[in-house]
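Severity: low
Component: inverse-folding endpoint
Summary: output formatting inconsistent between runs
Steps to reproduce: submit the following structure tokens with default settings.
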């Protein structure tokens, strides 16, 4: 049986791979987030923040999010927040829409810089932007089934490239990595920065609910959430360790990943990485916009209507064009300022209510019967 069709994979691993797919394209695939929120606090300060703060927060809150969604059968963010926040659910949507544009702008800036540097073309006119628009539009048109498969398969490719990059870097510069870690440099602010990173990335938890419909029990929901946090951080951990070899020079690079791959001078790996990185940008844009389509579909379904498939790519196009304009602000400013501001909005509107009122509702409600779970098909 195909791995992607196995029940264990769909229940316990798929949510983690979808989460990781969305998280990576928004910034840490370029390396910029890893530098901004971790490495600039020193190699050791960054690794402590990544493992002791971000990973723990991701696992705990994703487990709570998945359990809440399973308990109340809320598999899109609109129904999720109507159950969690009641009449104030729309506040999350406002913040989420702004956040989508910021993330997609980061994607546009990253892909634009990649093509500008290697093809000597103004990025707004490059074929790369067009390819991304077409790919996201096609995937959102096809719906949940294909999106799940694409995000899963691309995650395996990503892991393979990061593992090879990690091994090559340690082989060539292992002494430098060990020296930088041995310096035990920990700069003030690493805990708060790691919390910020954890919080704003957790904001996409409600955006990936479409892949939870395979889960049939509360125990499976909790387990999937705990595993998702680990799956999400592992590529970042591999990549971060490799970036330490170029500390502190890499801190000033707009796209640290390209800088690091250029330094190891392994051309085939560099080419493969660019292809995989570009795919992660498509992954992120697809998942975030698909969540909006699922939210619209949910609202129409309540009125016995259906969202026409032809409108799905059009919705994607609107978001991508807005994001393309926003990408003019530059990759570094978007990540440093846009993400940092958004994280506090999600903290108060999503995370605080979830860990208080949401947890109370879970404990007071019986689990959703297995027979009520749905197939994750569009």
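Observed output (run 2 of 3):
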């Amino acid at each position: 049986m195909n791995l992607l069709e196995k029940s264990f994979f769909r229940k316990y691993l798929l949510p983690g791979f979808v989460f990781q797919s969305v998280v990576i394209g928004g910034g840490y695939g370029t390396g910029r987030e890893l530098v901004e929120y971790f490495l600039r606090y020193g190699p050791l300060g960054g690794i402590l923040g990544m493992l002791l703060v971000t990973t723990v927060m991701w696992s705990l809150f994703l487990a709570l999010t998945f359990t809440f969604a399973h308990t109340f059968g809320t598999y899109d963010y609109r129904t999720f927040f109507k159950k969690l926040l009641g009449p104030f659910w729309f506040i999350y949507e406002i913040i989420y829409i702004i956040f989508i544009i910021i993330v997609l702008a980061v994607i546009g800036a990253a892909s634009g810089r990649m093509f500008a540097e290697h093809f000597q073309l103004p990025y707004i006119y490059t074929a790369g932007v067009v390819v991304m628009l077409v790919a996201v539009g096609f995937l959102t048109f096809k719906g949940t089934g294909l999106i799940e498969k694409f995000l899963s398969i691309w995650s395996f490719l990503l892991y393979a490239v990061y593992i090879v990059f990690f091994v090559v870097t340690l082989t060539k510069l292992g002494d430098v990595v060990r020296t930088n870690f041995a310096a035990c440099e920990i700069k003030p602010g690493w805990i708060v920065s790691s919390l910020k990173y954890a919080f704003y990335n957790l904001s996409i938890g409600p955006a990936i609910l479409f892949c939870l419909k395979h889960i049939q029990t509360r125990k499976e929901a909790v387990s999937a959430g705990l595993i998702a946090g680990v799956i999400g951080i592992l590529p970042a951990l591999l990549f971060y360790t490799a970036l330490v070899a170029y500390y502190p020079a890499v801190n000033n690079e707009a796209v640290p990943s390209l800088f690091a791959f250029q330094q190891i001078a392994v051309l085939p790996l560099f080419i493969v990485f660019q292809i995989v990185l570009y795919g992660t940008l498509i992954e992120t844009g697809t998942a975030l916009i698909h969540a909006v389509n699922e939210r619209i579909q949910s609202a129409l379904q309540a009125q016995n209507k259906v969202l026409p498939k032809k409108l799905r790519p059009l919705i994607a196009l609107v978001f991508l064009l807005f994001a393309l304009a926003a990408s003019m602000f530059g990759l570094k400013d978007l990540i440093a300022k846009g993400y940092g501001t958004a994280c506090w909005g999600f903290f108060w509107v999503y995370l605080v209510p979830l860990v208080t009122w949401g947890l109370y509702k879970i404990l007071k409600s019986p689990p959703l019967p297995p027979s009520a779970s749905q197939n994750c098909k569009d």
